[in-house]
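Summary for the steering committee. One of the milestones for this cycle was to obtain a three-dimensional model of the protein with zinc ion bound, which we needed before selecting residues for the alanine scan. The sequence and ligand used are listed below.
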Amino acid sequence: MKKEELEKLRKKLIKKRDKIKKFLERAERGAREWGESGERIFHHHISDTATDEELKELAFMSATRLREELAMIEEAISRIKDGTYGICLKCSKKIPLERLRAIPYARYCIKCQREIEERI
Ligand SMILES: [Zn+2]
C-alpha cells in the first residue's frame, strides 16, 4: 500500500476514534449530571443537544457497540504502527484497498469475513 493511502486511512481512523471517545465521555458525563443510568436515555439527550451530525449518528448506536468499535479502531491504529495493517488476520493475504476505505478497521478480507459470519 502506498504511504499516502495509509496516511489517509490512519487519519480517518484517528478522527473516528476521537469522535467516539468524545461521545462516550459526553454520555458518561451526561449520565452523572442527569442521574440517569439507562444508556438509551443519555443517548436521547445527546441526540437532542448535539449539533454535530456525526455525533448524532453515534447516538443511535449502543455504548457497547461503540466501545467495541473503539477497540477495533485502536487495534487498527497499532497495526499501522507495527506494519501489519491491511493484512487479513485469518489468511494473511492483503485486504483490498476498497474494503479498507469503506471499513478502515477491517481485520479480515471479504472471503474470511464471510466464513466467520457463516459460522455464527
Ligand atoms: Zn482472509
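Key point for the committee: Helices lie at 3-34, 39-49, 53-58, 63-81, 97-102, 110-119.
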